[in-house]
C-alpha cells in the first residue's frame, strides 16, 4: 500500500465498505488522484475476457484494469450526486479524478460511475449513496403516513364545533328580531297612550257640548 501521509486523502470505512476521504480542503477543479492500471486491448481475446468491478473503459478498444492495489483511486465510491468526476484523455489513455465542488476534510470523495456500470452492478442491489438513501427514507416515511391515514379512515367533521357555529348563527339572527319586537311594543304603547289621551279629550268635549245644549233649552223655556 502506498504512503498517503503527504496526500490530501486517506482510505477509510464507508457505508459500502472502504472509501476515499479528504484529509485537507480540496478546491473545485483541482486534481485529486489518477486512476491507473494495466491497459487492456479489447481486440485481443485474452484482454477482452478479463472481468472485474474495476475496469474503466477509455474507448471502444482500450480499457484500464484498475484492480491493482497500488491504484488508490479504485477505493472511490459511486454517487448519484458526486463531488468529483473522471477526466478521461483518450489520446493519452489517462484518467484523472478532479473535484467539481469544494471538498472539506473528512468528506468522502465520490464520482458517478456511469449508466452502464450502474445498471449492471448497482441497480440489482440498490444504490447506497447518500442521495439514493435519502430518497428511500423519504419514500418509506410517505408510505407509513399513507398507511396511518388509511387505517384512521376519512376525517369526520367535529360535531361540537358545528353545533356551536349553528347556535352562534341563530343567536346572532334572533337578536335584531327581538330588538324590533321591543321597538314595536314601545311604539304601540305610545300610540295607546296617545289614543287614551284623545279619548279623554273627546269625552270632555262631548260633556261640554251637552251642558251647553241643556243651558240653551232652559233659557228657551224661560223666554216663552
TrEMBL record:
Q: InterPro entries given for it?
A: SET2_Histone-Lys_MeTrsfase, SET_dom, SET_dom_sf
The UniProt entry, under Pfam families, shows:
SET
Keywords of the record, alphabetical order, are: Chromosome, Methyltransferase, S-adenosyl-L-methionine, Transferase
Point to the regions of Basic residues compositional bias.
215-224
Q: Where in the cell is it found?
A: Chromosome
Q: Does the keyword Transferase apply?
A: yes
Give all residue intervals belonging to the SET domain.
2-114
Its protein name is SET domain-containing protein-lysine N-methyltransferase
